[in-house]
Amino acid sequence: MRRGLSVVGPYRGLFSTPGVKGFVIAGFFGRVPMSMLGIGVILLIQELTGSYATAGAVAATVSVSFAVAAPLSGRLVDRFGQARVIVPLTLAHGATLTGMMLCVELGAPRWTLFASGVAVGATAVSLGSLVRARWSHLLAGSPRLHTAFSFESVADEVIFVGGPALATALATMVNPYAGLIVALVCTVVGTVAFALQRGTEPPVRPREHSSGSPITIPGVALMSVVFLAMGAVFGSVDLITVAFAEARDAKPVAGLLLAAFAGGSLVSGLWYGAREWKISLRARFVRALLTFAVGLTPILFIDDVRVMAGALFLAGLSISPTVIAGYSLTEQLVPAHLLTEGMAWISTSVGFGVALGAWAGGRLTDAFGAGNAYGFSFVCALLAVSVGAAGHAWLRTPVAQQQS
Protein backbone atom coordinates (compact mmCIF):
# COMPACT_ATOMS: atom_id res chain seq x y z
CA MET A 1 0.00 0.00 0.00
CA ARG A 2 2.77 2.42 0.92
CA ARG A 3 4.61 1.65 -2.29
CA GLY A 4 1.45 2.38 -4.30
CA LEU A 5 0.99 5.70 -2.50
CA SER A 6 4.62 6.61 -3.21
CA VAL A 7 3.94 6.20 -6.92
CA VAL A 8 0.70 8.21 -6.94
CA GLY A 9 1.77 10.86 -4.42
CA PRO A 10 3.96 13.04 -6.68
CA TYR A 11 1.07 13.49 -9.13
CA ARG A 12 -1.40 14.88 -6.58
CA GLY A 13 0.09 18.36 -6.37
CA LEU A 14 -0.08 18.91 -10.12
CA PHE A 15 -3.76 19.84 -10.07
CA SER A 16 -3.69 22.52 -7.40
CA THR A 17 -2.99 25.26 -9.96
CA PRO A 18 -6.20 27.01 -11.10
CA GLY A 19 -7.35 25.96 -14.55
CA VAL A 20 -5.18 22.86 -14.80
CA LYS A 21 -8.00 20.33 -14.46
CA GLY A 22 -9.95 21.97 -17.28
CA PHE A 23 -7.23 21.84 -19.92
CA VAL A 24 -6.03 18.40 -18.81
CA ILE A 25 -9.49 16.84 -19.15
CA ALA A 26 -10.23 18.57 -22.47
CA GLY A 27 -6.77 17.72 -23.77
CA PHE A 28 -7.25 14.07 -22.85
CA PHE A 29 -10.49 13.69 -24.78
CA GLY A 30 -9.14 15.70 -27.69
CA ARG A 31 -6.18 13.31 -27.93
CA VAL A 32 -8.19 10.08 -27.82
CA PRO A 33 -8.44 10.01 -31.66
CA MET A 34 -4.64 9.98 -32.06
CA SER A 35 -4.73 6.27 -31.16
CA MET A 36 -7.89 5.59 -33.17
CA LEU A 37 -7.33 7.43 -36.45
CA GLY A 38 -4.57 5.26 -37.93
CA ILE A 39 -6.04 1.91 -36.96
CA GLY A 40 -9.52 3.14 -37.94
CA VAL A 41 -8.31 4.09 -41.41
CA ILE A 42 -6.47 0.77 -41.77
CA LEU A 43 -9.50 -1.29 -40.78
CA LEU A 44 -11.87 0.68 -43.03
CA ILE A 45 -9.63 0.65 -46.12
CA GLN A 46 -8.65 -3.00 -45.66
CA GLU A 47 -12.34 -3.91 -45.44
CA LEU A 48 -12.94 -1.96 -48.67
CA THR A 49 -9.96 -3.21 -50.73
CA GLY A 50 -8.91 -6.46 -49.05
CA SER A 51 -5.29 -5.24 -49.16
CA TYR A 52 -3.14 -4.40 -46.16
CA ALA A 53 -0.70 -2.67 -48.52
CA THR A 54 -3.37 -0.22 -49.69
CA ALA A 55 -4.63 0.27 -46.15
CA GLY A 56 -1.12 0.98 -44.95
CA ALA A 57 -0.50 3.38 -47.83
CA VAL A 58 -3.61 5.45 -47.07
CA ALA A 59 -2.78 5.52 -43.35
CA ALA A 60 0.76 6.53 -44.28
CA THR A 61 -0.60 9.39 -46.40
CA VAL A 62 -2.47 10.73 -43.38
CA SER A 63 0.64 10.44 -41.19
CA VAL A 64 2.97 12.09 -43.71
CA SER A 65 0.58 14.96 -44.24
CA PHE A 66 0.31 15.48 -40.48
CA ALA A 67 4.08 15.27 -40.13
CA VAL A 68 4.63 17.98 -42.75
CA ALA A 69 1.98 20.30 -41.33
CA ALA A 70 2.66 19.92 -37.59
CA PRO A 71 5.74 22.20 -37.38
CA LEU A 72 3.96 24.81 -39.51
CA SER A 73 0.90 24.82 -37.26
CA GLY A 74 3.23 24.88 -34.24
CA ARG A 75 4.91 27.99 -35.57
CA LEU A 76 1.52 29.61 -36.11
CA VAL A 77 0.56 28.78 -32.53
CA ASP A 78 3.79 30.34 -31.22
CA ARG A 79 3.05 33.46 -33.25
CA PHE A 80 -0.72 33.90 -32.80
CA GLY A 81 -1.68 31.78 -29.77
CA GLN A 82 -3.29 28.37 -29.37
CA ALA A 83 -6.99 29.19 -29.59
CA ARG A 84 -6.79 31.35 -32.73
CA VAL A 85 -5.10 28.54 -34.66
CA ILE A 86 -6.49 25.23 -33.43
CA VAL A 87 -10.23 25.97 -33.58
CA PRO A 88 -10.38 26.53 -37.36
CA LEU A 89 -7.93 23.67 -37.93
CA THR A 90 -10.08 21.28 -35.89
CA LEU A 91 -13.27 22.19 -37.71
CA ALA A 92 -11.50 21.68 -41.02
CA HIS A 93 -10.18 18.31 -39.79
CA GLY A 94 -13.69 17.17 -38.93
CA ALA A 95 -14.92 18.18 -42.37
CA THR A 96 -12.09 16.40 -44.23
CA LEU A 97 -12.44 13.19 -42.20
CA THR A 98 -16.15 13.21 -43.01
CA GLY A 99 -15.20 13.66 -46.66
CA MET A 100 -12.91 10.62 -46.57
CA MET A 101 -15.67 8.42 -45.16
CA LEU A 102 -18.07 9.70 -47.81
CA CYS A 103 -15.55 8.78 -50.52
CA VAL A 104 -15.51 5.24 -49.18
CA GLU A 105 -19.28 5.03 -48.86
CA LEU A 106 -19.90 6.35 -52.37
CA GLY A 107 -17.27 4.10 -53.97
CA ALA A 108 -15.26 7.04 -55.27
CA PRO A 109 -12.03 6.39 -57.20
CA ARG A 110 -9.16 5.15 -55.07
CA TRP A 111 -7.13 8.31 -55.59
CA THR A 112 -9.76 10.23 -53.62
CA LEU A 113 -8.83 8.22 -50.53
CA PHE A 114 -5.27 9.47 -50.80
CA ALA A 115 -6.37 13.04 -51.57
CA SER A 116 -8.69 13.14 -48.59
CA GLY A 117 -5.97 11.50 -46.49
CA VAL A 118 -3.68 14.44 -47.25
CA ALA A 119 -6.36 16.87 -46.07
CA VAL A 120 -7.11 14.84 -42.92
CA GLY A 121 -3.47 14.79 -41.88
CA ALA A 122 -2.76 18.43 -42.75
CA THR A 123 -5.59 19.68 -40.55
CA ALA A 124 -4.90 17.40 -37.54
CA VAL A 125 -3.82 19.25 -34.39
CA SER A 126 -0.76 18.13 -32.41
CA LEU A 127 -2.67 18.49 -29.16
CA GLY A 128 -0.08 16.68 -27.06
CA SER A 129 2.46 19.38 -27.88
CA LEU A 130 0.00 22.11 -26.92
CA VAL A 131 -0.80 20.46 -23.59
CA ARG A 132 2.89 20.12 -22.77
CA ALA A 133 3.45 23.75 -23.78
CA ARG A 134 0.83 24.77 -21.19
CA TRP A 135 2.58 22.75 -18.51
CA SER A 136 5.90 24.37 -19.47
CA HIS A 137 4.30 27.82 -19.18
CA LEU A 138 2.76 27.09 -15.78
CA LEU A 139 5.67 25.16 -14.22
CA ALA A 140 8.71 26.73 -15.90
CA GLY A 141 11.80 26.08 -13.81
CA SER A 142 9.95 23.85 -11.34
CA PRO A 143 10.97 20.22 -10.69
CA ARG A 144 7.26 19.41 -10.97
CA LEU A 145 7.56 19.84 -14.74
CA HIS A 146 9.21 16.39 -14.91
CA THR A 147 6.20 14.94 -13.09
CA ALA A 148 3.79 16.83 -15.39
CA PHE A 149 5.47 15.46 -18.51
CA SER A 150 5.38 12.00 -16.96
CA PHE A 151 1.66 12.39 -16.25
CA GLU A 152 1.03 13.41 -19.87
CA SER A 153 2.95 10.40 -21.12
CA VAL A 154 0.83 8.18 -18.89
CA ALA A 155 -2.29 9.91 -20.25
CA ASP A 156 -1.07 9.19 -23.77
CA GLU A 157 -0.63 5.54 -22.91
CA VAL A 158 -4.08 5.31 -21.33
CA ILE A 159 -5.34 6.60 -24.67
CA PHE A 160 -3.25 4.05 -26.57
CA VAL A 161 -4.43 1.26 -24.30
CA GLY A 162 -8.11 2.01 -24.84
CA GLY A 163 -8.14 3.68 -28.26
CA PRO A 164 -7.03 0.82 -30.54
CA ALA A 165 -9.21 -1.68 -28.69
CA LEU A 166 -12.20 0.65 -28.98
CA ALA A 167 -11.58 1.43 -32.65
CA THR A 168 -11.12 -2.24 -33.49
CA ALA A 169 -14.24 -3.30 -31.59
CA LEU A 170 -16.35 -0.58 -33.22
CA ALA A 171 -15.03 -1.33 -36.73
CA THR A 172 -15.31 -5.12 -36.52
CA MET A 173 -18.42 -5.55 -34.37
CA VAL A 174 -20.54 -2.47 -35.10
CA ASN A 175 -19.67 -0.88 -38.45
CA PRO A 176 -16.42 -0.26 -40.36
CA TYR A 177 -17.05 3.50 -40.07
CA ALA A 178 -17.89 3.54 -36.37
CA GLY A 179 -14.34 3.91 -35.06
CA LEU A 180 -13.64 6.94 -37.24
CA ILE A 181 -16.96 8.56 -36.35
CA VAL A 182 -16.17 8.31 -32.62
CA ALA A 183 -12.69 9.68 -33.30
CA LEU A 184 -14.18 12.65 -35.17
CA VAL A 185 -16.56 13.54 -32.34
CA CYS A 186 -13.83 13.31 -29.68
CA THR A 187 -11.47 15.44 -31.77
CA VAL A 188 -13.87 18.30 -32.34
CA VAL A 189 -15.42 18.38 -28.86
CA GLY A 190 -12.17 17.87 -26.94
CA THR A 191 -10.02 20.28 -28.93
CA VAL A 192 -12.57 23.10 -28.97
CA ALA A 193 -13.08 22.67 -25.21
CA PHE A 194 -9.31 22.81 -24.77
CA ALA A 195 -9.09 26.03 -26.78
CA LEU A 196 -11.73 27.64 -24.57
CA GLN A 197 -9.49 27.22 -21.49
CA ARG A 198 -7.89 30.64 -22.09
CA GLY A 199 -6.61 31.22 -18.54
CA THR A 200 -3.80 28.65 -18.90
CA GLU A 201 -2.93 29.43 -22.51
CA PRO A 202 0.74 30.41 -22.93
CA PRO A 203 1.18 34.06 -23.94
CA VAL A 204 2.48 34.93 -27.37
CA ARG A 205 6.14 35.83 -26.90
CA PRO A 206 8.01 38.28 -29.17
CA ARG A 207 10.08 36.50 -31.78
CA GLU A 208 13.77 37.26 -32.04
CA HIS A 209 14.90 38.49 -35.44
CA SER A 210 17.70 35.92 -35.54
CA SER A 211 15.55 32.96 -34.49
CA GLY A 212 15.13 30.19 -37.02
CA SER A 213 13.50 26.80 -36.84
CA PRO A 214 14.18 24.59 -33.79
CA ILE A 215 15.17 21.78 -36.15
CA THR A 216 18.47 23.61 -36.72
CA ILE A 217 19.42 22.92 -33.07
CA PRO A 218 21.66 19.81 -33.23
CA GLY A 219 20.02 18.11 -30.23
CA VAL A 220 16.51 18.60 -31.64
CA ALA A 221 17.65 17.33 -35.05
CA LEU A 222 19.15 14.24 -33.43
CA MET A 223 16.01 13.48 -31.45
CA SER A 224 13.91 13.97 -34.57
CA VAL A 225 15.83 11.17 -36.27
CA VAL A 226 15.49 8.96 -33.19
CA PHE A 227 11.75 9.55 -32.97
CA LEU A 228 11.43 8.97 -36.72
CA ALA A 229 12.80 5.47 -36.15
CA MET A 230 10.59 4.96 -33.09
CA GLY A 231 7.55 6.10 -35.06
CA ALA A 232 8.38 3.47 -37.68
CA VAL A 233 8.25 0.89 -34.89
CA PHE A 234 4.85 2.13 -33.75
CA GLY A 235 3.37 2.31 -37.26
CA SER A 236 4.62 -1.10 -38.32
CA VAL A 237 3.63 -2.83 -35.06
CA ASP A 238 0.10 -1.40 -35.34
CA LEU A 239 -0.49 -2.79 -38.82
CA ILE A 240 1.47 -6.04 -38.45
CA THR A 241 -0.31 -6.90 -35.22
CA VAL A 242 -3.72 -6.62 -36.90
CA ALA A 243 -2.52 -9.04 -39.60
CA PHE A 244 -0.90 -11.29 -36.96
CA ALA A 245 -4.23 -11.63 -35.14
CA GLU A 246 -6.25 -12.11 -38.34
CA ALA A 247 -3.93 -14.89 -39.53
CA ARG A 248 -4.80 -16.72 -36.30
CA ASP A 249 -8.55 -16.11 -36.68
CA ALA A 250 -8.53 -13.55 -33.85
CA LYS A 251 -8.80 -10.19 -35.63
CA PRO A 252 -11.05 -8.59 -32.95
CA VAL A 253 -8.27 -9.28 -30.42
CA ALA A 254 -5.82 -7.07 -32.36
CA GLY A 255 -6.89 -4.01 -30.38
CA LEU A 256 -6.20 -5.84 -27.12
CA LEU A 257 -2.73 -6.80 -28.33
CA LEU A 258 -1.98 -3.16 -29.13
CA ALA A 259 -3.44 -2.22 -25.75
CA ALA A 260 -0.93 -4.55 -24.11
CA PHE A 261 1.88 -2.74 -25.96
CA ALA A 262 0.64 0.60 -24.66
CA GLY A 263 -0.11 -0.88 -21.24
CA GLY A 264 3.55 -1.61 -20.63
CA SER A 265 4.32 2.01 -21.40
CA LEU A 266 1.58 3.20 -19.05
CA VAL A 267 3.00 1.23 -16.10
CA SER A 268 6.57 2.41 -16.70
CA GLY A 269 5.38 6.01 -17.13
CA LEU A 270 3.77 6.03 -13.68
CA TRP A 271 6.92 4.58 -12.14
CA TYR A 272 9.27 6.91 -14.03
CA GLY A 273 7.41 10.08 -13.09
CA ALA A 274 7.29 9.18 -9.40
CA ARG A 275 11.07 8.82 -9.10
CA GLU A 276 13.66 11.47 -8.37
CA TRP A 277 16.42 10.84 -10.88
CA LYS A 278 20.09 11.52 -10.23
CA ILE A 279 21.46 10.56 -13.64
CA SER A 280 21.27 13.07 -16.49
CA LEU A 281 18.38 13.36 -18.91
CA ARG A 282 20.50 12.32 -21.88
CA ALA A 283 21.72 9.21 -20.04
CA ARG A 284 18.14 8.26 -19.25
CA PHE A 285 17.17 8.85 -22.87
CA VAL A 286 19.88 6.58 -24.30
CA ARG A 287 19.34 3.83 -21.72
CA ALA A 288 15.60 3.80 -22.37
CA LEU A 289 16.27 3.46 -26.10
CA LEU A 290 18.57 0.49 -25.51
CA THR A 291 16.01 -1.20 -23.28
CA PHE A 292 13.33 -0.59 -25.91
CA ALA A 293 15.32 -2.44 -28.59
CA VAL A 294 16.10 -5.34 -26.28
CA GLY A 295 12.45 -5.57 -25.23
CA LEU A 296 11.27 -5.93 -28.83
CA THR A 297 13.42 -9.01 -29.47
CA PRO A 298 10.95 -11.69 -28.22
CA ILE A 299 8.17 -10.72 -30.65
CA LEU A 300 10.32 -12.04 -33.50
CA PHE A 301 9.91 -15.60 -32.26
CA ILE A 302 6.29 -15.81 -31.05
CA ASP A 303 3.42 -17.50 -32.88
CA ASP A 304 0.72 -17.61 -30.18
CA VAL A 305 -1.70 -14.68 -29.61
CA ARG A 306 -1.72 -15.00 -25.82
CA VAL A 307 2.06 -15.15 -25.57
CA MET A 308 2.31 -12.20 -27.96
CA ALA A 309 0.17 -10.09 -25.59
CA GLY A 310 2.71 -10.61 -22.80
CA ALA A 311 5.65 -9.95 -25.11
CA LEU A 312 4.13 -6.70 -26.38
CA PHE A 313 3.49 -5.57 -22.80
CA LEU A 314 7.17 -6.09 -21.94
CA ALA A 315 8.24 -4.38 -25.18
CA GLY A 316 6.19 -1.33 -24.27
CA LEU A 317 7.82 -0.80 -20.87
CA SER A 318 10.50 1.50 -22.29
CA ILE A 319 8.25 3.72 -24.42
CA SER A 320 7.14 6.23 -21.78
CA PRO A 321 10.62 6.78 -20.26
CA THR A 322 11.99 7.47 -23.75
CA VAL A 323 9.18 9.87 -24.71
CA ILE A 324 9.25 11.70 -21.35
CA ALA A 325 13.00 12.20 -21.53
CA GLY A 326 12.72 13.32 -25.16
CA TYR A 327 10.13 16.01 -24.43
CA SER A 328 12.05 17.14 -21.33
CA LEU A 329 15.23 17.52 -23.38
CA THR A 330 13.32 19.48 -26.01
CA GLU A 331 11.88 21.80 -23.38
CA GLN A 332 15.41 22.62 -22.22
CA LEU A 333 17.03 22.82 -25.66
CA VAL A 334 14.49 25.08 -27.40
CA PRO A 335 13.99 28.82 -26.70
CA ALA A 336 10.67 29.64 -25.02
CA HIS A 337 9.30 31.56 -28.01
CA LEU A 338 9.79 28.48 -30.23
CA LEU A 339 8.65 25.85 -27.73
CA THR A 340 5.44 24.72 -29.44
CA GLU A 341 7.18 24.37 -32.79
CA GLY A 342 10.07 22.54 -31.13
CA MET A 343 7.76 20.00 -29.54
CA ALA A 344 5.84 19.73 -32.81
CA TRP A 345 9.04 18.54 -34.47
CA ILE A 346 8.97 15.51 -32.17
CA SER A 347 5.38 14.86 -33.22
CA THR A 348 6.20 15.35 -36.88
CA SER A 349 9.12 12.93 -36.66
CA VAL A 350 6.91 10.30 -35.07
CA GLY A 351 4.32 11.01 -37.79
CA PHE A 352 6.82 10.43 -40.59
CA GLY A 353 7.99 7.29 -38.84
CA VAL A 354 4.47 5.97 -38.41
CA ALA A 355 3.85 6.59 -42.11
CA LEU A 356 7.00 4.72 -43.07
CA GLY A 357 6.21 1.92 -40.67
CA ALA A 358 2.61 1.54 -41.87
CA TRP A 359 3.70 1.49 -45.53
CA ALA A 360 6.61 -0.91 -45.01
CA GLY A 361 4.65 -3.06 -42.57
CA GLY A 362 1.83 -3.46 -45.09
CA ARG A 363 4.20 -4.37 -47.92
CA LEU A 364 6.20 -6.83 -45.84
CA THR A 365 3.08 -8.40 -44.33
CA ASP A 366 1.54 -9.02 -47.75
CA ALA A 367 4.85 -10.40 -49.06
CA PHE A 368 6.24 -12.43 -46.15
CA GLY A 369 3.55 -12.73 -43.49
CA ALA A 370 3.08 -10.90 -40.20
CA GLY A 371 5.51 -12.97 -38.13
CA ASN A 372 8.43 -12.15 -40.44
CA ALA A 373 7.37 -8.52 -40.89
CA TYR A 374 8.07 -7.82 -37.21
CA GLY A 375 11.76 -7.96 -38.17
CA PHE A 376 11.36 -4.49 -39.70
CA SER A 377 10.12 -3.12 -36.37
CA PHE A 378 13.15 -4.56 -34.60
CA VAL A 379 15.60 -3.08 -37.12
CA CYS A 380 14.01 0.37 -36.65
CA ALA A 381 14.45 0.07 -32.88
CA LEU A 382 18.12 -0.76 -33.39
CA LEU A 383 18.48 2.31 -35.62
CA ALA A 384 16.96 4.53 -32.90
CA VAL A 385 19.47 3.21 -30.35
CA SER A 386 22.41 3.63 -32.71
CA VAL A 387 21.58 7.24 -33.59
CA GLY A 388 20.82 8.21 -29.98
CA ALA A 389 24.00 6.66 -28.62
CA ALA A 390 26.23 8.03 -31.38
CA GLY A 391 25.00 11.62 -31.00
CA HIS A 392 24.30 11.79 -27.27
CA ALA A 393 26.82 14.63 -26.84
CA TRP A 394 24.45 16.90 -28.81
CA LEU A 395 21.84 16.37 -26.11
CA ARG A 396 23.70 18.38 -23.48
CA THR A 397 21.12 20.91 -22.33
CA PRO A 398 21.96 24.42 -21.07
CA VAL A 399 21.10 23.21 -17.55
CA ALA A 400 23.53 20.32 -17.80
CA GLN A 401 26.24 22.57 -19.19
CA GLN A 402 25.88 24.96 -16.27
CA GLN A 403 26.18 22.08 -13.79
CA SER A 404 29.33 20.68 -15.37
UniProtKB/TrEMBL annotation:
GO terms for molecular function: transmembrane transporter activity. SUPFAM superfamilies: MFS general substrate transporter (SSF103473). Coiled coil: none annotated. This is MFS family permease. It holds the Pfam family MFS_1. Keywords: Membrane, Transmembrane, Transmembrane helix. The chain crosses the membrane at residues 20-45, 51-73, 85-107, 113-133, 177-196, 217-241, 253-273, 285-302, 308-330, 342-361, 373-395. It comes from Streptosporangium becharense.
